[in-house]
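We examine the record.

___
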Amino acid sequence: MSQHVRILFVDDDPDLRASWRSVLSTEGFEVVGAASVAEALTQITQESFDVLIADLNIGHPGDGFTVVGAMRRVQPRAVTFIFTGYPAFQAALRAIHEQVDDFLTKPADPEVVITRIRENLGRPKKRAIVLTQRLTHIIAQNRKAIVEDWYQAVEADPEISEIKMSRDDRIDHLPDVLEEILRPQISDTSIKPESRSSAARHGERRRRQGYTPTMLLEEARILHRIISRCTQENLLSVDISMMLPDLVDVGDKLHLMSKHSLYAFLHPEGIDDAA
């Protein structure tokens, strides 16, 4: 069974990649290694594999699920494994067994790994239907977490945190920004008047609170990163066919909100500018 079975082994530890390549190759498997999510995604889109073994944390916690999600969409017949060095994650991994075929705990006995690979290859594929959602739905479901993560990140910023203020004042118009992001896009050059006014008031308020223009832009950059991280953490649930246009829409709206805030910050008398 091992002949002509191709395995993609993803781990950022070069020693582990080398040792498992040797072990699995000895058993007749053809093994291709990848050191990062980017390398793994390139391999998945360019080559064909029968098995994926991905470390749970490739650079960042949970990156393994990103690779699994890509493999399931591009090569749905491939058997997928998650490698984890943390037994406490086993319960969570069992809960998503409909999405991952099996999991392996480090340090793993090579004989056990080989047996599990062969068992899964010989088992009929029983793939659950994956219900995907538009990115705006994912953001809506995680709105509270996004606000909290953004607040914590801004409070940890060494420059912004120098300006002391209450939690409510810090969060300010962030709920309005998220509301605009969740609104169905009508035009890629404008936002609704209420959002524009909220952004302008935010810019004026930040000027009075002692912010600099770079601080204002840094708040927006942090929000973009938080939303991007939320997207990655929920990649298995995101509608891939619409993910890129949805991300572009989110970026456009963040840019437009920041643009109106910055204009009001720099020109408090010209808040009605239509830029």
In short: Strands lie at 6-10, 30-34, 51-55, 79-84, 102-105. The chain has a mean pLDDT of 85.
